[in-house]
Recover the amino acids of this structure.
């Protein structure tokens, strides 16, 4: 067991890392409304609604069409006292103090209106979003875009498009999906060949608009594999005919075909393909919105080896949610040139988990392959505390494992940190050759 690094050493490394600017390679920002317009936008982040619900506030007091914004905020605030131990509460206070100048020790029923007024005032300033990004060190933010997003009305160099293909791959039979695909691609998917052309046309439109990646969230029971054309054609015919009522095996076959097709398109267009593996949806139907899904570690990345072997030129940034899968991810990135450990996702986005996962990665995977962090944020303000948290953890690992244990200079440790925080994102997502 390595002794904890000195606080002063870690703080110096953190201060050096904080001087850098970087690209955030995954978020859920709406580029036409990137910042919080009210305190409700901040407290509406699913972490807070999930946690106050978990702590005993009934769902109907947190969300619902009949609730006005003030009542919803008041009820979430009433539950915040039960969350003061959590890292999510620490993010909230860091935002309140660092971005809005809020000085109280906690947000409660006596002072939340003061914070709300500060949010209202700052959000009305046209320069607010640029100031938040600058204070966070963020120079560009990757988005999560539906396949038929028009990608209009925003600077795609700042808000970088990313083609999210979950709906195309897993929900092709839902009402309207194939119609929307025909409209946005100009190709009606009457048969397998036209379906593949339509998906390729979508990718080409995204690339023309500056997209830097495709992405998908994958359930634990998904197994990527090549589907023979006759089986895929029969599956498409069943889905076109019956929609979501098509037999599950047919829908699964079509999903596997479309996933494999997207991977091939990424190889041809030199697009990284982000894989977020291991979420089981709808485990808790009684949960709040976005608070119903959980990780499921009952899978192995060995199931993805055929994919990594079949598309050696595709860069696969991979996110996982469990400790065992992180160890597998380290092993895969150890030997596969096209597999890149990607951020610390969702339920793994706490300092203790980040530290453990990062230590496994940083001592075993080539430094040029470690994609350190992404915010996964819905509002720009959350990049500020989230990246600060990651930098502190990274600084601690660099201080303990490299300066104190291996005898590296602080400058050398900072340089390694900049690979994770800055350089590798640019190398993997912006360069044709990430080596």
């Amino acid at each position: 067991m390595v002794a904890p690094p000195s606080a002063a050493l870690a703080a110096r490394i953190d201060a050096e890392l904080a001087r850098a600017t970087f690209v955030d390679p995954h978020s859920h920002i709406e580029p036409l409304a990137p910042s919080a317009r009210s305190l409700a936008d901040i407290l509406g982040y699913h972490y807070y609604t999930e946690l106050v619900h978990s702590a005993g506030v009934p769902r109907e007091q947190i969300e619902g069409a009949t609730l006005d914004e003030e009542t919803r905020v008041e009820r979430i605030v009433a539950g915040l006292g039960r969350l003061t131990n959590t890292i999510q509460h620490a993010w909230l206070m860091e935002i309140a103090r660092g971005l809005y100048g809020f000085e109280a020790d906690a947000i409660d029923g006596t002072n939340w209106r003061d914070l709300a007024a500060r949010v209202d005032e700052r959000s009305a300033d046209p320069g607010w979003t640029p100031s938040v990004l600058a204070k966070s060190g963020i120079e560009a933010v990757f988005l999560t875009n539906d396949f038929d997003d028009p990608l209009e009305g925003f600077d795609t160099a700042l808000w970088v498009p990313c083609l999210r293909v979950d709906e195309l791959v897993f929900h092709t039979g839902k009402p309207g999906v194939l119609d929307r695909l025909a409209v946005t691609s100009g190709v009606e998917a009457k048969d397998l060949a036209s379906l593949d052309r339509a998906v390729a046309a979508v990718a080409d439109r995204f690339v023309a608009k500056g997209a830097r990646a495709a992405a998908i969230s994958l359930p634990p029971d998904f197994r990527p594999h090549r589907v023979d054309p006759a089986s895929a054609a029969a599956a498409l015919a069943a889905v076109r005919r019956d929609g979501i009522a098509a037999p599950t095996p047919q829908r699964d076959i079509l999903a596997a075909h479309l996933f494999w097709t997207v991977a091939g398109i990424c190889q041809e267009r030199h697009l990284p393909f982000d894989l977020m593996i291991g979420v089981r949806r709808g485990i808790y139907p009684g949960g709040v919105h976005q608070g119903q899904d959980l990780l499921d570690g009952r899978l192995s990345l060995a199931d993805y080896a055929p994919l990594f072997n079949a598309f050696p030129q595709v860069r696969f940034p991979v996110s996982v949610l469990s400790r065992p899968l992180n160890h597998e991810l380290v092993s895969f990135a150890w030997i596969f040139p096209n597999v890149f450990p990607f951020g610390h996702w969702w339920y793994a986005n706490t300092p203790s988990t980040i530290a453990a996962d990062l230590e496994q990665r940083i001592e075993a995977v080539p430094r040029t392959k470690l994609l350190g962090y992404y915010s996964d944020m819905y509002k720009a303000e959350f990049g500020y505390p989230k990246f600060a948290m990651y930098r502190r953890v990274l600084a601690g690992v660099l201080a303990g494992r490299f300066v104190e244990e291996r005898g590296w200079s602080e400058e050398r440790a900072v340089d390694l940190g900049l690979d994770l925080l800055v350089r590798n994102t640019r190398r993997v997502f912006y360069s044709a050759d990430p080596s």
User: Anything to note?
Assistant: The first strand starts at residue 22 and ends at 24. Residues 37-127 form a domain with the uronate isomerase, domain 2, chain A fold (CATH 1.10.2020.10). The chain has two domains: 37-127, 129-430. The chain has a mean pLDDT of 96.
